[in-house]
Amino acid sequence: MRRLLPLFSLVLIPVCVLGQDVHPEVQAALDWQMPKNECEFRVKRTNVGGTDRNFRKAMKKYTKCNDKYLAGLVAEREKMMAVAHHGLTQEQADIIMGHMGAIAIILKRSGSESAVPESIREANQTADFNQ
To answer: CB of 62 within 8 A of CB of 119?
Structure first.
């Protein structure tokens, strides 16, 4: 019986440690996935005047949508940084830092010229603004 007690306690300790509840904010940060950017650039091409106006209007709408998407990513990154005060294991910290790194890449790209979708660059090059 004396030998069974330590063996029994060794079996229960990992179950107790693994069964610990994770704070909901930490769990949300661990489960987070990059949201899809649903912003679309649509401009109607016509041979009639007003193409420049349509292009600017579509660009304004796209920019507003994209800025909202990027602001959401910044807010998510801030939430992830705040979960550290709940205490994290190294594995949890690595996962959350990976998510934050992915956000940082998207935010860095958003400031570069390559952040403008190909369809917008093509529309800008082919639009006839002199009509």
So the answer is: no
